[in-house]
Amino acid sequence: MFRKVVLGATLAAGAAGADVPLTCEGVGPDWDLTLAEDSASFTFQRSDRFDVPQSSVAEGHDWPRAYTLIAEFDTAILLVDKATCTLGADTWPFTAHVLTQRGQTPILLTGCCVVAE
Prior knowledge:
10 strands, two-stranded antiparallel sheet, mainly beta, 8-stranded antiparallel β-barrel
């Protein structure tokens, strides 16, 4: 299911820092993730609430940004890059990659992000 997300402001080069909330989603398979300052909500086959103990940027660059997500039984890494991303009919300002697992199966999900309102 596609959800239209509207970006309410123009982003400066470094505006989506670790303290900026993001809304991300992907299709094929469907997933969504909401990132706040120190927590995240991630839905893929089940819903999980994560702590975000660490965020970083690429050495010597502003992008991409990586967020480590830790829950009681799951972990994930969210990689966000400042690159236009198309999801359905919508254009988003950031691409997203989520590395996670279900049991012993590693999974890489792709999608798009926008600064959450």
